[in-house]
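Async update (no meeting this week)

Hi team, since we skipped the sync, here's where things stand on the single-chain job. The sequence we agreed to prioritize is pasted below, unchanged from the tracker. I ran it this morning and attached the output directly underneath so nobody has to dig for it. Comments welcome in thread, and please keep replies under the output.
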Amino acid sequence: MFANGQTVIQYVEKLAPKRLAVEGDKIGLHVGTLQKPVRKVMVALDVLEAVVDEAIAAGADLIVAHHAVIFRPLKHLRTDLPSGRVYEKLLKHDIAVYTAHTNLDAAQGGLNDWLAEAIGLVDVEVLDEAVEDPYQKLVVYVPLSHRDAVLHAMAEAGAGWIGNYSHCTFQAVGTGTFMPRAGSNPYIGAEGKLEEVEEARLETIIPASRQAAVVRAMKAAHPYEEVAYDIYPLALPGKRLGIGRIGTLPEPLTLRQLALLVKQRFSLTGLRVVGNLEDTVRRVAVVGGDGNSFVGKAAFRGADVLITGDIYYHTAHDALADGLRLIDPGHNIEKIMKQKLAAYLTEQLARDGYRTEVFASQTHTDPFQFL
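Output:
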């Protein structure tokens, strides 16, 4: 069975909830429809004509991209121009395009975590904590025969995680009562007869961003036609999420050594460096894409160096004045999301029994070259 397009996107938003996106960011469905079976998904950084041609040749039904295909309002849709041909080809071949941008940047286990991991940072924290993901308490009543199945389903969907511990619940056993009425299809009991069932009360903690996924998983694993559950807000402070990461190198390096490491890890032909190449650095901030607006934050958080793309001339001077070194490997290092997101979606789809294939675009989209 192939997954519906909306099902694929539910997996994307499980990792990168839309609420994490920066206000005004162009995320979501840009072209086509998700209300169709999807045989193949292509994960891409950019949606250029060459990328669309690759999707057509591979028989993709859906492109999940990091950068928006519609970033500015369209003034016209001319198929005799390159930009118009992109949309013409997408529509003619029924290829939908969905964008996950700053929500994927900010997500725990998303783009900036992938970058920090590739560089080898440890003790990683969020650089700019812009969003709080508040905690909630979920309580569900389940017959003892299905207690473990419901618990595991909720935990896999993101419930019951406290620090480095998972499957955290409180359980109490009691008696549940119900009477099936006309038109019901009860798992236990008969129409018109009051039933008493030994049930477990499962209490667990969930981040608000995981509520929909956890409830969906809980209902799928629960045997009852009508599931009794409650969700309460908690005063507990939630996890802080946001753009960028800051961490520590396992061992100090010179700025030159770190720059060469970044060049090697991201398969680059060149990069720009700001600062004395022989300076020793250990505390490192990283921001995927254009990180000019995070220079001050990186300096304030005590970073020795910020790794980010698209650095402006005057921003580089400002960084030096603040004692912050810069490594600019370009915007295109975000290409790491292609393989990472494709692997994540492949795992999620296979786990739920879908035959939908996911692959990473192989088209090179970096417009810059070094001579």
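Quick observations from my side:
The chain has eleven helices and 17 strands.
The chain has a mean pLDDT of 95.
Reply here if anything looks off.
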